[in-house]
Amino acid sequence: MNDSIEDMLALSSDEYLKSIEEARNDYKTGRVRSIEEIFDV
Questions:
Q1: What is the maximum alpha-carbon separation in the chain?
Q2: R_g of the chain computed on alpha carbons
Q3: What is the pLDDT of residue 3?
Q4: What is the structure's pLDDT at 29?
Q5: In this predicted structure, what is the pLDDT of residue 6?
Q6: What does the pLDDT look like over 1-41, one tens digit per residue?
Q7: Separation CA 5–CA 39 (nearest Å)
Q8: Which of 8, 20, 30, 40 has its CA at 20 to 30 Å from residue 14's CA atom?
Q9: d(CA 3, CA 23)
Q10: Could you tell me the pTM of the whole model?
Q11: How far is CA 21 from CA 2, 16, 28, in A?
Q12: How many angstroms separate the Cα of 38 from the Cα of each of 12, 26, 33, 41?
């Protein structure tokens, strides 16, 4: 039940929804880095 409440609160946030859209666009355009690149392993 708590997870559902958190999901509803998150999805009602314009800022949160915008960050999801931005992340999806970054992924589609290849503007991502692998874990290996981030941590230099």
A1: 39
A2: 14
A3: 84
A4: 97
A5: 84
A6: 778 988 898 889 999 889 989 999 999 999 999 999 999 98
A7: 34
A8: 30
A9: 22
A10: 0.64
A11: 24, 9, 11
A12: 31, 16, 7, 8
Mutual angle of helices 2-11 and 14-28, in 10-degree steps: 80
Share of the chain residues as helix, strand and coil, in percent rounded to the nearest 5:
75, 0, 25
Q: Domain residues of the chain, as ranges? A: 3-37
In this structure, the chain runs to a length of: 41
- Do residues 16 and 10 lie in contact, with contact meaning Cβ atoms separated by under 8 Å? yes
Tokens coding 30: 């290849």
Location of structure tokens 């999805």: 11
The 3 state secondary structure assigned to 24-37 is: HHHHHCCCCCCHHH
Residue 41 to residue 38: CA distance in whole angstroms: 8
* d(C-alpha 17, C-alpha 6), whole Å: 14
